Amino acid sequence: MITRRGFTASVPALVGGPAILSACSAGADGYEAAVRRTWRLGPLQGLEGAELGEELVRYATLAPSSHNTQCWKFTVAHDAITIAPDLSRRCPVVDPDDHHLFASLGCAAENLVQAARAHGLHGEVVFDAAHDVLRVALSPTRALASPLFGALVQRQCTRGEYDAKALSNEELDLLARAGNADGVRMMLLTQRAAMEAVLEHVVRGNTAQMKDPAFVDELKAWIRFSGRDAVRHADGLYGVSSGNPDVPAWLGGLLFDWLFTPQSEADKLSKQLRSSAGIAVFVADAADKSRWVDVGRCYERFALQAAALDIRNAFINQPVEVPAVRAQLASFLGIGDRRPDLVVRFGRGARLPASLRRPVEDVLRSGEP
Ligand SMILES: Cc1cc2nc3c(=O)[nH]c(=O)nc-3n(C[C@H](O)[C@H](O)[C@H](O)COP(=O)(O)O)c2cc1C
Predict the structure, then answer these.
(1) Which end of the chain is more exposed for a tag (fewer CB within 10 A), N or C?
(2) What is the count of structural domains for the chain?
(3) Which atom of ligand 1 is nearest to the CA of 103?
């Protein structure tokens, strides 16, 4: 349910939809307050030292992360912020080689760079392969609150249906400019035939994952079925953010087992993909942690640019998460032995309720990096 691969269409009808949503959302006030606290632009002036460092970390934590694990730890020094993986938040089944984990760190680094610039600091990101950490060196520059900075609090992974309308060439150009960089290519697919071919790979990957009990268990462990649980954990996949009703965890677990089937998911994925304006596939020229960080940075710039244009996006990574299907997708894309890193659909549509983040103090490590 309730997730990236949720059973959106069927649940509301079965459990009473909006009625259940309001009846069960005793935690809703708490959730709304947490959303307001989390997704806010702070002051651009008057911050310095540790206070400024923590504000930049706050923006970094607004980045997407696989299953919303928030798999990061930050260390603030006077001229740099270090981002280290929080390995206690790995997802060994869906992400055995930590590809998504390092891409998530790249997303956080990109947010940090955008926020630093708005506060008059240039951020230079370097991956330290000896220690598997990212160091963002900060030096004074002219402050610029760019549209991408403004989009930090607007961006979300929107898992609903879109309006199926094409984007303009100008919009596609802006997205392409944001999503490409040295070493990372973003392929844009907007032809219906190509999108249908990718859909086949998505469904194949999804079906393989759903037949794997370990994948399903891991996914379920990160789902927050109720607003109360979403606020208490402040991480994971809140069902309402995927268009599902707010239900107590015991009921959510039962509904998940009952309704989360390969066919229901295939139907939902087909509708979602056919409602999209296009698909972006991110492909790096090497397969190592440093490049996965770069892929995350490119994706995040793409997502921020999209949000700035009021365009939604959502991952459909199933085909890159199952090695056999990933090879088939690579062959379809004609990218030789390179790895398709991330697959994303985009288009215009309604926003969904936001996901939450843990407070900054929970992701700070003390001491010099
Ligand atoms: C590397 C990476 C992989 C992800 N893969 C998927 C995915 O396959 N399906 C999906 O629905 N969401 C995926 N997500 C999105 C996260 O679940 C999402 O960022 C998180 O729940 C927080 O929500 P938000 O981005 O709306 O703030 C991925 C995010 C990242 C960074």
Answers:
(1) C
(2) 2
(3) 1
